[in-house]
Write a structure and sequence with these properties.
Elements lengths: L1 H7 L10 H18 L7 H4 L3 E5 L4 E5 L4 H12 L7 E4 L5 H5 L10 H18 L10 E4 L3 H12 L11 E4 L16 H7 L1 H7 L45 H7 L1 H9 L4 E4 L2 H11 L1
Parallel strand pairs: 3-6, 4-5, 4-6
Antiparallel strand pairs: 1-2
Helix pairs in contact: 6-7, 8-9
């Protein structure tokens, strides 16, 4: 019923129709489909037929003659899905000194803006996402292992010294969400990197954009404690060009976050991803 309402109520076929009518109409459609469905049979094609069958919303999953790397990954992905929708929040870590200086992987010490952002993020989690006495909707945080993310998580969970009510959430550190490897450009600004590696930087850096790294997850409800803090301007990296001397490209980051995406899809409650810009944007492009 939840799936029908979520998938069909906004459909053009059911504009202005009551939810009860939508459910009844779609169930009737299913009954009509069942009249012409052909059941899968593992004996077809002399037993060579290949299929993945999901029965009763993953109560049973049948893999028949599934071979090879890509079919196996498809099967693993399907087994990670579930029919119930949960909110997914994606945010950057708090602003650091390195962010303000425009350094790639620079000083992870938090700025005043970063500290204020953590306070507001903590308030957002407490007001909107924590569950008391109901583990089924307990917030799960998936984060990278970078110093800025670790400090953000630590301060969000602990709160100020006079806070007697720590936040109870589940935290999982996934190295797949780590920031892009800047190689020999780590700790440099874009200007410094361009002077040292002009040819690579000419290919690597595209037009800068104004980051909204310190914007807490958006809310459709009135929430005066949620507002955007300014962050340093960051460049946009060319998708397939790698940072020099062992660095990564944005494409390589998007490939390695695959395991983190499966963790997100497998979650059975609200999820918040806290990661640096490149992996966070990869996650966001997947879930939107």
């Amino acid at each position: 019923t939840e799936n029908i309402l979520r998938a069909k109520c906004g459909n053009d076929d059911f504009k202005g129709v009551s939810p009860q009518t939508v459910i009844a109409e779609f169930r009737e459609r299913i009954r009509q489909y069942e009249k012409v469905y052909e059941s899968l049979d593992s004996s077809e094609d002399n037993g060579k037929i290949s299929f993945i069958q999901i029965i009763d919303a993953k109560q049973r999953i049948i893999l028949n003659n599934v071979k090879g790397a890509l079919p196996s990954r498809v099967a693993y992905f399907l087994m990670s899905l579930h029919p119930v929708a949960y909110p997914i929040f994606v945010t950057f870590p708090a602003e650091t000194v390195g962010d303000v200086a425009g350094e790639f992987g620079g000083d992870a010490k938090l700025t005043a803006n970063g500290t204020e952002y953590i306070r507001r993020l903590r308030n957002f989690i407490r007001c909107r996402l924590t569950s008391y006495g109901d583990n089924s909707s307990r917030l799960r945080i998936l984060c990278s292992s970078s110093p800025a993310v670790e400090r953000t998580i630590q301060m969000v969970l602990q709160g100020p010294p006079d806070d007697a009510h720590p936040i109870d959430v589940s935290v999982n550190v996934l190295r797949a969400l780590d920031d892009i490897n800047y190689g020999a450009m780590a700790g440099l600004t874009q200007e410094e990197a361009t002077r040292r590696h002009p040819k690579t930087c000419g290919l690597l850096f595209q037009q800068p954009f104004q980051s909204e790294a310190n914007e807490p997850p958006s809310s459709h409800e009135s929430q005066p404690d949620l507002c955007m803090n300014e962050c340093a301007t960051m460049p946009t990296f060319a998708y397939t060009v790698s940072f020099v001397r062992g660095g990564e490209s944005a494409r390589q980051v998007n490939v390695r976050i695959g395991s983190a995406l499966l963790e997100i899809m497998r979650a059975d409650g609200p999820v918040m991803i806290i990661a640096d810009p490149t992996p966070a944007k990869g996650v966001l492009s997947f879930v939107t």
